[in-house]
Design a protein that fits this description.
The structure is a single chain. By secondary structure, the protein is α/β, with parallel strands linked by helices. The protein has 4 domains: 204 residues, no CATH class; 143 residues, no CATH class; 102 residues, no CATH class; 82 residues. The protein is built from 18 helices and 15 strands. The strands form 3 sheets. The protein has a 6-stranded mixed sheet with strand order 9-5-6-7-8-10. It has a 5-stranded mixed sheet with strand order 11-12-15-14-13, with helices on both faces. Strands 1-4-2-3 form a 4-stranded parallel sheet.
């Protein structure tokens, strides 16, 4: 086994996925052209596009190198001491194992030790996307190394060679320790008392937490992927992730996630988009679970076609990158016109597709985008291309004339020749949440589905089977799908849906027409309760009763559920379900409750206004009555104290000699003074009567 060499920390490590050339004294792993033995002064180890053999990993290429190949490598790097810098594409298990193989065989000739073969097979399987370990990721060598490698990627800059060297040496030390302690990695890694192992376990726990967080905010769907040659298709769960921080465990955790995947077979397709890496070739990766036997040939061809269109005939092809899909049959040459940077095809296996690399530093090799090109291409090739041969929209006059209210769409399954619907690929999709979401979107005029990201979430629609008919309802409408060519219940359910939609439309019209009036009533109600505005526009209770009676009648008419009752059980069941889905039952109850509350409050406000007016009038009458009573009592007293009108006339016309003018003036002044007293008594007692009535009603209760 390969032990960690203490001289290795003297190496200079660089992280540069865009590196192509191998200058003298440099070693490139997973980068450059592995076939170029002349232009490179250093060594480029890369199995991708290697013409001399087909290898699934760089480790496999190094392990199977013959004496001629080793002599070429040694001619450029004569010894380990001659390596001035090591440039890596990533910190993967294949990169680390390749470096261990190369460093331990560079100085001494010889074949790979038999004890290393289990690790070589394990690394190659991992690099091919095959996960050989169980559910316990802490016993997986690949998971432990990946978690440790990515633990510092999000915290430190990979432009710093010191950071890269520290990270790479930690990975090499962990791999070396695991190889020495565990000759067969498929048997599981036993716990080790080392700092690297402890850090790897802690990073694994962190990665699992990140996955729990990411998947809740990611897009999931089911797709029909091709098996083998593409003549058969199978339903696969797909997961679309926007990755802002690098992770080495998302792929494995997604593939092993049987709980959240609809097929309970894990996510067989994982599409990762890295916004920070746009233009580098590391921004888009679409991978499959190889053990499910699916391929992405159709997607690769579609992306290449889109790429050619986007370049408008100017796509560079002077120095094409070797790719299996562009290889001439029976040769190691490429077909004419092969692009310099095509979409990667996983050496023809089509289980992994990656974005083109940069044409030159800072010059993207692709003009496609994630949202506008890649996601729609996936959706078109693995979902919508099956619709035309399987789904037939049904045009009905009663539906075509509907321009308002809820949208209603009806579809029917196209029966193939021979009548065997099981041979239609889409039949395996009709129970999936993706197909249900697509049906929901067809009756939603606010939504256009061009990719999985455009599908409505399951919380926005409700699905229910009625015999052989699937009904998908949401707040904007309903879609009806019949999986039989003729079904007697279809017309019944369409009629039920139209009935509920009409009632819903009538209710919406009532709300639109009544909203302004109700708002005015509420405004009047609020204004009537303000301190300085006690009048209100509605003063008579009889007027309000008439208006409220008319409003309740219109509300009952708009929410007339009697029109929804039919003589068919499925009809009544659907009307009840749609009424509940569209909230008609709850809306009717809430509307009537609101109207009743408004009626009660307005009646109370009108009663308070009437009571206020009655109190004012009563207080005024009380003031007059008490003032009159006081005046009635005061009059005899005044008669005694003053000269009345009769005595005044006698004195003026009968008394001889006539009274002196001074006496008459004194009598007049006295009479005037008592008139003032009379007026004051009248006002005082009138005020007392007003106050007593105002503060104490006729029941004697103080407000």
């Amino acid at each position: 086994m390969f032990a960690f060499n203490n001289a290795w920390p003297l190496f200079t490590f660089e992280f540069n996925p865009s590196q192509r050339d191998a200058p003298a004294g440099s070693l490139l792993i997973g980068l450059g052209d592995g076939n170029d033995t002349e232009s490179h002064k250093g060594v480029a180890l890369n199995n991708k596009g290697y013409r001399a053999g087909h290898y699934n990993s760089v480790s496999e290429l190094v392990a199977n190198a013959d004496d001629r190949q080793w002599s070429i490598w040694r001619s450029k790097l004569s010894s380990v001491q001659g390596i001035q810098r090591i440039v890596i594409e990533d910190f993967s298990l294949d990169t680390c194992f390749t470096l261990l193989l190369f460093l331990n065989h560079l100085d001494a000739a010889g074949s790979l030790s038999l004890s290393t073969h289990p690790w070589l097979e394990y690394v190659t399987a991992w690099e091919s996307g095959i996960y050989l370990d169980g559910d316990d990721t802490t016993r997986s060598a690949a998971c432990l190394l990946s978690a440790l490698a990515h633990s510092s990627l999000c915290e430190q800059s990979m432009d710093d060679t010191v950071v890269v060297r520290h990270n790479m040496l930690a990975c090499l030390r962990l791999l070396s320790d695991m190889m020495i302690a565990n000759p067969d990695p498929t048997a599981g890694i036993m716990p080790m008392h080392t700092q690297c192992y402890a850090s790897a376990v802690a990073s694994l726990a962190y990665e699992q937490q990140i996955y729990q967080h990411v998947i809740k905010r990611s897009v999931t769907c089911q797709l029909l992927l091709d098996l083998g040659t593409g003549r058969r298709q199978t339903v696969v769960d797909a997961l679309f992730i926007t990755e802002t921080l690098p992770s080495g465990m998302l792929k494995i955790l997604a593939r092993c996630d049987k709980e959240r995947s609809w097929t309970h077979n894990g996510f067989g397709l994982l599409a990762i988009y890295r916004p920070r890496e746009v233009g580098t070739g590391n921004d888009i990766v679409i991978s499959l679970n190889p053990i499910q036997g699916t391929r992405l040939d159709a997607l690769w061809s579609a992306l290449e076609q889109r790429e050619d269109v986007a370049w408008q005939g100017l796509r560079p092809h002077d120095t094409p990158r070797f790719l299996e899909s562009y290889r001439l049959a029976g040769s190691d040459k490429l077909i004419p016109g092969a692009p310099n940077q095509p979409w990667y095809d996983d050496q023809g296996r089509m289980t992994l597709i990656a974005a083109p690399k940069q044409l030159a530093p800072g010059e993207p090799g692709s003009k496609l985008t994630w949202q506008k090109d890649v996601l729609p291409a996936i959706w078109e090739n693995y979902f919508t291309r099956y619709l035309d041969n399987a789904i037939v929209p049904i045009a009905l006059p009663e539906l075509d004339c509907r321009t308002k209210g809820k949208c209603i769409r009806v579809y029917q399954h196209r029966i193939p020749e021979g009548g065997d619907i099981t041979i239609v690929p889409l039949m395996r999709m009709i129970d999936t949440p993706t197909f249900h979401a697509w049906l929901a979107a067809q009756s939603d005029s606010t939504r256009v589905v061009r990719s999985p990201a455009d599908l409505p979430p399951t919380s926005e629609y409700h699905c229910q089977w009625y015999s052989n008919i699937l009904v998908v309802a949401h707040r904007h409408g309903v879609t009806i799908f019949c999986r039989e060519e003729e079904d007697k219940h279809l017309a019944i359910l369409i009629k039920a849906a139209i009935s509920v939609a009409d009632v819903s439309h009538e209710y919406e019209n009532f709300l639109a027409n009544s909203a302004q009036q109700i708002e005015q009533w509420l405004k009047d109600l609020l204004e009537s309760q303000q301190k300085h505005n006690r009048k209100g526009k509605i003063r008579r209770l009889s007027d309000w009763s008439e208006m409220m009676l008319e409003t309740k009648a219109q509300a009952l008419k708009a929410m007339n559920k009697g029109a929804l009752v039919g003589n068919d059980a499925l009809h009544n069941q659907l009307t009840e379900d749609l009424s509940r889905q569209w909230g008609l039952s709850e809306q009717r109850q809430e509307l009537m409750t609101q109207i009743e509350q408004l009626d009660q409050l307005m009646r109370q406000a009108i009663s308070q206004r009437q009571e206020k007016r009655q109190r004012i009038y009563g207080a005024l009458f009380s003031a007059l009555a008490l003032g009159a009573a006081a005046n009635h009592i005061w009059e005899p007293i005044k008669e005694i104290k003053t000269t009345n009108l009769y005595e005044w006339q006698l004195m003026l016309f009968k008394e001889q000699p006539a009274p002196a003018m001074d006496k008459l003036q004194a009598i007049a002044a006295d009479a005037a003074r008592y008139e003032v007293y009379t007026l004051a008594i009248l006002l005082i007692f009138g005020f007392i009567g007003f106050i007593l009535f105002w503060f104490f009603d006729f029941n004697g209760k103080e407000e």
